[in-house]
Amino acid sequence: xxxxxxxxxxxxxxxxxxxxxxxxxxxxxxxxxxxxxxxxxxxxxxxxxxxxxxxxxxxxxxxxxxxxxxxxxxxxxxxxxxxxxxxxxxxxxxxxxxxxxxxxxxxxxxxxxxxxxxxxxxxxxxxxxxxxxxxxxxxxxxxxxxxxxxxxxxxxxxxxxxxxxxxxxxxxxxxxxxxxxxxxxxxxxxxxxxxxxxxxxxxxxxxxxxxxxxxxxxxxxxxxxxxxxxxxxxxxxxxxxxxxxxxxxxxxxxxxxxxxxxxxxxxxxxxxxxxxxxxxxxxxxxxxxxxxxxxxxxxxxxxxxxxxxx
Length: 310
Ligand code: PMV
Fold this sequence. Notes:
The protein is an alpha+beta fold. It is 36% helix and 25% strand.
């Protein structure tokens, strides 16, 4: 099955609803505590393993959609027009083409997080795009259906439709219709996630390419699915029992293992900078001094700190 067929299967005759004038939506970014790293299907963004994230409710993407009487789309990102020939615009336009007839859109995206710096901005972006389309065309899709559609834009986007802890079940089906996210647990009042910015610049290697190279060349990757299975159980248990030590230790170990699989790829993939390693050391030093603080890291040099508000 290709993306267009999946969209057809979900939307059916609704795809031809007439668009309304304008709509604005928000989707939060999400940080995986147990990571998604590796696709079993590259076209449909179907993952090798399940994953679990926490949404950052105050950080994400605001998207305003309107239909315009023009030949081409107009895209504005953080107040600046985006060249339609840029890779960012092309990826977005290809995604929009899955859903529309001949309409052209003006899309105003405001991201409260840096784009493509391993801060899951694409997750919030694509989730807000599907929410925006749903509102614009009045499809009234369920969150499950929105999650299935967001996944077609970017895998981790399927988790950006809820607040709280979100579980993406990998699913078994070839068409991916059972590969969507769901709310696992609404909140953990005292838990804090803080982005520790090392660099805001765009990542040198996309997560798509890095995942593929890891799967194809890293000897360590065969150990990843079992590692995720163990870590997922621990993290679920930690959330349900408010066991912060277990949560922090497991999330940190999961992220470090993911980066080890990349370092074992050929050629090796290294997202961390010297500053990243210095900050990790600082976290470990603090822990030795009795401060309960952990980190996780995605496909970029930045760290996300996990701690309790005390
Ligand atoms: O959804 P993508 O293609 O941006 O990949 C996300 C990969 C990680 O952020 C590293 C892990 C995750 O589960 O979010």
